[in-house]
Amino acid sequence: MASAAPEFHLPELILASASPRRSSLLREMGFNFAVVRSEAPEVASEFLSPAEIAQVNAYRKARQVAKKHPDVLVLAADTVVSLGREHFGKPRSLQEAEAMLIRLQGRTHQVVTGICLLHLRLHRQRLFAETTLVTFRQLHVEQIRQYVARIHPLDKAGGYAIQDEGDEIVKSIQGSFSNVVGLPLERLRQELSCWL
Question: From 3.40.50.450, 3.90.950.10, 1.40.20.10, 3.90.550.10, which CATH number describes the 13-193 domain?
């Protein structure tokens, strides 16, 4: 079922991400937008919390694109998967993705998405993070290997995609489902409605 169009009018919008999942989620909200991939390098630090890392990276991505498009509202996001003090970024190989899922199986981890809304010309910015708790099922190595082979995990933090056969590996979630996909739609709609 198609989502209703937004009840508010935003300035021209750019999504500073090449993620097809984030584009799809934003379209579900009824927005028209352009996609401009940010080339800002992501940072990770053991001294920062997952929420801080996600917000720093979201800001860096938004700033890099906004400097080239100062008259446009830029939306940037960064997702961090963490288990305690251990952070899981995008795996560099299928083997690394399998290793991540082996660490996460049977346990509850955090998925934190940081969002930056930035309009340079108007000198306006909103920066926030949303957290969802995800509990994995107990999984065997062969189950993990088969899952990884099907979902192409190399562009996904934590090496998995909850929207791609996620029922096979996810036992339960607490919080926003769309946040685990890539954008916390409920919180984002609230923040965008406050933009005007």
Answer: 3.90.950.10
